[in-house]
Structures are given as structure tokens and as C-alpha cells.
Design goal:
Radius of gyration: 14 Å
Distance between the termini: 22 Å
Number of strands: 7
Shape: globular
Helix content: 25-40%
């Protein structure tokens, strides 16, 4: 999916097992939905903790990060609590949302089927912009914040 495309109003369980709908997450502002391959792996931990450390900056532009991977609720819960992430982690075990947004690889087994991609989504469920890098873990939060600042300034 690309900028301007509308994301379906999906529902997935978060790290506590609570069902979360995209539309509900968007009620208070844009969502920075970042896909990561495997909870608690080195790069994914670095990326998730960078989003955590920038929480105040995201709040200042009225947005919230939401992590998503193919990990089950238990793995997401352990990841969230171990690193005190403080934002929702969604369990996309069937990789349905990853597939819809183009963040699913079909040629790799296991958890690596999820690409490291970030979607900045406006309250109308339309993609404002995307960030893609498999190896630059901090770039996702940094670029998403810049996208949000530019979007807010032009609104």
C-alpha cells in the first residue's frame, strides 16, 4: 500500500489479549504502525525501544506508535513488559494485516516473513507515508516523526 491508500479497519489482539481495532486506535490521532519480524530479537528490540524513548515527541504531534508482528500474544506480552514499551503491540499471527499492507514476505519461513516497515496512518485510515528499512532500526521512529510534523504543518 502507498500514501493515500485507505487501510481496512482490522482488529487484532494486543499484548494483554485485548482486541484492538484500528479505528479505535485512531480516535485520538494518527497511528504509527510499525511491523517488526520477531519480538525480542536484537534489531526489533532496538527499534521498539527507540519508539518508546520518543513517546513524548510522538505525543506532542498527537500520534501514538503501535507495534505489530506475527508473534503470539504471550511473546508480545513478554516483549512489552521486559522493555517497558508503554504502547500497544498487536499480534498478527496469521499475517493477514501484514499481507494487506505489503509487509509480508512469502519466501521466508517463520517470523522472518514479516518485513520491517512502518506506516503512518491518519485518522481517516489513509496512509500518510511509509518508512522501509530492514537494517536501519532507528530510522523508522525518526522518519515517522518527521512525516507527522510535516503533515501537521500542512493541515
Amino acid at each position: 500500500m502507498n500514501a493515500g491508500d485507505q487501510v481496512s479497519d482490522f482488529e487484532l489482539k494486543d499484548e494483554t489479549g485485548t482486541p484492538r481495532k484500528l479505528s479505535t486506535l485512531l480516535e485520538n490521532g494518527p497511528v504509527v504502525l510499525f511491523f517488526y519480524p520477531i519480538a525480542s530479537s536484537g534489531g526489533c528490540t532496538q527499534e521498539a525501544c527507540h519508539f518508546r524513548d520518543m513517546a513524548a515527541e510522538f505525543a506532542a504531534v498527537g500520534a501514538q506508535p503501535v507495534g505489530i508482528s506475527g508473534d503470539n500474544v504471550t511473546a508480545q506480552s513478554q516483549f512489552a513488559s521486559t522493555h517497558s514499551l508503554g504502547y500497544p503491540l498487536l499480534s498478527d499471527e496469521g499475517k493477514k494485516v501484514a499481507k494487506e499492507l505489503g509487509a509480508k514476505r512469502s519466501w521466508l519461513p517463520g517470523g522472518l516473513q514479516t518485513k520491517r516497515m512502518t506506516f503512518v496512518i491518519g485518522q481517516d485510515r489513509r496512509i500518510i507515508d511509509t518508512v522501509a528499512s530492514e537494517t536501519k532500526f532507528d530510522i523508522h521512529a525518526d522518519e515517522a516523526l518527521e512525516i507527522l510534523k510535516k503533515h501537521k504543518a500542512s493541515a
